[in-house]
């Protein structure tokens, strides 16, 4: 079930949207925040699949809230609701990659269609991202015995290195470094188990230029030295 965070300072509107999304449209779980500050607090707990926010609120207005959301996540879709058909607000919102801008009172058919389209577009984007990410993982597998940096990968797939780093968090909930270390150690363990290669050769084939560094990392992550692992495997 997809989770939607509603950030709206008018309780009657929040309650109405919750009923509309959970019971009328259906298929959604709603969390509510009565202010931008409360919304940010909930975001730090976990990211929803969609944020719906009013644009004019008390202490923190919708645009300030959105700008802070984008510091936390560039990916979560945002939908703005407003009683003000203010073009400048809409234009400013688009700078933060807001998906759509709907006016109150909310037309439930329009809201339903907007959300359906938004999630359909998001699924298509995820599909394309997954294809790119599989290409990245294959590159790593093919070059594991060599030095691999985010820049190497970014150049290979024509993406920004920072974005590639974010992909690892989004797809695997791991950092790039954590993934590389895990894959190098998987290869090392297989080589130690299945071959009679010397430890320094295993280190080299697993992408470690320094056998000493390899042994330090191996013991730290596996809990025993490479020689001990080979003996007891």
From TrEMBL:
<keyword id="KW-0597">Phosphoprotein</keyword>
<dbReference type="GO" id="GO:0043565">
    <property type="term" value="F:sequence-specific DNA binding"/>
</dbReference>
<dbReference type="InterPro" id="IPR009057">
    <property type="entry name" value="Homeodomain-like_sf"/>
</dbReference>
<feature type="domain" description="HTH araC/xylS-type">
    <location>
        <begin position="134"/>
        <end position="232"/>
    </location>
</feature>
<dbReference type="Pfam" id="PF12833">
    <property type="entry name" value="HTH_18"/>
</dbReference>
<feature type="domain" description="Response regulatory">
    <location>
        <begin position="3"/>
        <end position="119"/>
    </location>
</feature>
<dbReference type="InterPro" id="IPR001789">
    <property type="entry name" value="Sig_transdc_resp-reg_receiver"/>
</dbReference>
<dbReference type="InterPro" id="IPR011006">
    <property type="entry name" value="CheY-like_superfamily"/>
</dbReference>
<protein>
    <submittedName>
        <fullName>Response regulator</fullName>
    </submittedName>
</protein>
<keyword id="KW-0804">Transcription</keyword>
<dbReference type="GO" id="GO:0000160">
    <property type="term" value="P:phosphorelay signal transduction system"/>
</dbReference>
<keyword id="KW-0238">DNA-binding</keyword>
<dbReference type="Pfam" id="PF00072">
    <property type="entry name" value="Response_reg"/>
</dbReference>
<feature type="modified residue" description="4-aspartylphosphate">
    <location>
        <position position="54"/>
    </location>
</feature>
<keyword id="KW-0805">Transcription regulation</keyword>
<dbReference type="GO" id="GO:0003700">
    <property type="term" value="F:DNA-binding transcription factor activity"/>
</dbReference>
<dbReference type="InterPro" id="IPR018062">
    <property type="entry name" value="HTH_AraC-typ_CS"/>
</dbReference>
<dbReference type="InterPro" id="IPR018060">
    <property type="entry name" value="HTH_AraC"/>
</dbReference>
<dbReference type="InterPro" id="IPR020449">
    <property type="entry name" value="Tscrpt_reg_AraC-type_HTH"/>
</dbReference>
């Amino acid at each position: 079930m997809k989770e939607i965070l509603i950030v709206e300072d008018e309780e009657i509107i929040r309650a109405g949207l919750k009923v509309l999304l959970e019971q009328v449209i259906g298929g959604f779980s709603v969390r509510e925040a009565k202010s931008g500050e409360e919304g940010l607090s909930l975001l730090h707990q976990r990211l929803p699949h969609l944020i719906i926010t009013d644009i004019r609120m008390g202490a923190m207005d919708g645009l300030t809230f959105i700008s802070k959301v984008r510091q936390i996540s560039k990916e979560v879709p945002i939908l703005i609701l407003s009683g003000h058909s203010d073009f400048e607000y809409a234009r400013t919102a688009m700078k933060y990659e807001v998906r759509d801008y709907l006016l109150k009172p909310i037309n439930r058919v329009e809201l339903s269609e907007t959300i359906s389209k938004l999630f359909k577009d998001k699924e298509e984007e995820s599909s394309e991202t997954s294809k790119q990410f599989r290409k990245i993982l294959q590159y790593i597998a093919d070059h594991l015995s060599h030095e691999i940096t985010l820049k190497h990968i970014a150049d290979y797939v024509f993406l920004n290195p920072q974005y590639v780093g974010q992909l690892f968090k989004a797809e695997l909930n791991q950092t790039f470094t954590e993934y590389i270390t895990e894959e190098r150690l998987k290869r090392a363990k297989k080589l130690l188990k299945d071959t009679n290669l010397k430890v320094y050769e295993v280190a080299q084939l697993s992408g470690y230029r320094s056998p000493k560094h390899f042994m330090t990392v191996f013991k730290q992550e596996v809990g025993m030295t490479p020689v001990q692992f080979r003996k007891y495997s």
